[in-house]
Design a protein that fits this description.
This protein is α/β, with parallel strands linked by helices. Helix content is about 40%, strand content about 15%. The protein has a seven-stranded parallel beta sheet, sandwiched between helices. The radius of gyration is 17 Å and the shape is globular.
Length: about 250
């Protein structure tokens, strides 16, 4: 990425750039796709449910969303990414969680979360970097990690493990890819109100536990994570790589 222009607001514009957002149908991924499109990027939005992508495209600026109804774990998806004519930005948002007490974690849950949160995230990033490098212009990778990539929490041993792994990948990629002008960063949200977190947050006791751990005293919104992603993806962050931007209301400051 080049040095940002003198106009500080222009540094957040993404005209002419192509961004790939996985898990774009709902929640954080949807918010990221909408904001990147509003900033001028053409956004390749990936989700398994075509109806979600149709709603996303209707909410975005005309022509801003290129919907791909695909499974990010599918080798055919990886191959399609590598064949893209242009790619400048990846928002690596694929991931899941299945909270369980440590001694109750099943091999199936362990394999599922390791496979999606680590293996698939790695392979998507690998395919995206191959496409970005072919363009020779540099680019930006933003991993959607979690505050749980920096701390521990009850009933989240596997999730914490996978997000710590993603943070390690983030730093190693940043160092290795810097000579190719590819910046690599992560965002670490706290609990965000999304369809994935709704079942957990509907439990009053758990909701109180979460709110008591956030000094700002409230849950996050997808738009707040998307704003951090836009910063890291844009020329405004031209000297930022290998960083973890925590959008956690102060959770990890304690």
């Amino acid at each position: 990425m080049s040095i940002p222009p003198q106009d500080p607001l222009a540094a957040y514009r993404l005209e002419g750039q192509v961004a790939l957002v996985t898990g774009a149908g709902r929640g954080i991924g949807r918010a990221c796709a909408l904001l990147l499109a509003a900033a001028g990027a053409r956004v390749v939005a990936v989700a398994r449910t075509a109806a979600d992508l149709d709603e996303l495209a209707a909410a975005a600026p005309a022509g801003g969303i290129d919907p791909w109804a695909m499974d990010a774990t599918d080798p055919a998806f990886m191959a399609r990414v590598e064949e893209m004519d242009r790619l400048d930005i990846l928002v690596n948002n694929v991931g899941a969680n299945r909270p369980q007490p440590f001694t109750d974690v099943t091999p199936e849950t362990l394999d599922h979360l390791l496979g999606l949160n680590v293996r698939t995230a790695f392979l998507v990033a690998q395919s995206a970097v191959r496409a970005i490098r072919r363009g020779g212009r540099g680019g930006s990778i933003v991993h959607v990690s979690s505050q749980m990539g920096h701390v521990g929490s009850p009933n989240r041993t596997v999730y914490c493990m996978t997000k710590h792994a993603l943070e390690g990948l983030n730093k190693a990629m940043a160092v290795e890819l810097a000579p190719a002008a590819i910046r690599v960063n992560s965002v670490g949200p706290t609990f965000i109100e999304t369809p994935m977190t709704a079942p957990m947050l509907n439990d009053p006791a758990f909701r109180d536990f979460v709110l008591n751990r956030i000094p700002l005293g409230r849950l996050g919104q997808g738009s707040e994570v998307a704003q951090a992603v836009l910063f890291l993806a844009s020329p405004a962050a031209s000297l930022v790589t290998g960083a973890a931007l925590l959008v956690d209301g102060g959770w990890t400051a304690q």
